[in-house]
Amino acid sequence: LEDLNLNSLVVELMPLIQTSVSSAVTLGTQLAKGQISIRVDASGLTNALLNLVINARDATSAVEGGNPRLVELVIERDAAQGTARVNIRDSGAGVPEEIRSRIFDPFFTTKPVGKGVGLGLSISYGIMRDMGGRIGLVPTTKGADFQLDLRLAAA
Fold first, then answer.
1. Distance, CA of 35 to CA of 55 (rounded, Å)
2. Residue partners of 30: CB distance under 8 A and separation at least 6
3. Burial class for 21, CB neighbours closer than 10 Å (0-12, 13-18, 19+)
4. DSSP 3-state assignment of 25?
5. Of 72, 63, 59, 92, residue with least CA distance to 18
6. What are phi and psi of 37, to 5 degrees?
7. pLDDT tens digit string along 82-115?
8. Disulfide-capable partner of 83 in 11, 52, 137, 149 (CB 3.0 to 4.6 Å)?
9. 94 in Cβ contact with 146 (< 8 Å)
């Protein structure tokens, strides 16, 4: 694990993230105020973020009716918890209540055959666990909102 500035890491990843979501999706980013130093595996966090962004892209493409396709990354410090937080939100259909308990299971997918094997969320869960962080689905009335909680670096 290494100490990194979370805002800087996300800014460096933005060209790759933008390429991953395509020009049909509006990508928003809200960086935290000030520097947030986190203790992470940089390649693991990159993998988890890309998995979540690609899932968000896919979720927005499944929604019909001309609704805007939006994916947003929001970074903030949770002083009360002593963590950094990254939320990846989308304007898709959301995650139905009946499958929420299984979304992090290996090989679980809602995508059609040939469009995914159901490992992205499971891998992201493992990466976050191995770094001492957490990943979860935040209740929301629109789309999906995945939250990563990351350990802050020692001061």
1. 28
2. 72, 73, 74, 75
3. buried
4. coil
5. 72
6. -90, 120
7. 899 999 999 988 898 898 999 998 888 877 677 7
8. 149
9. no
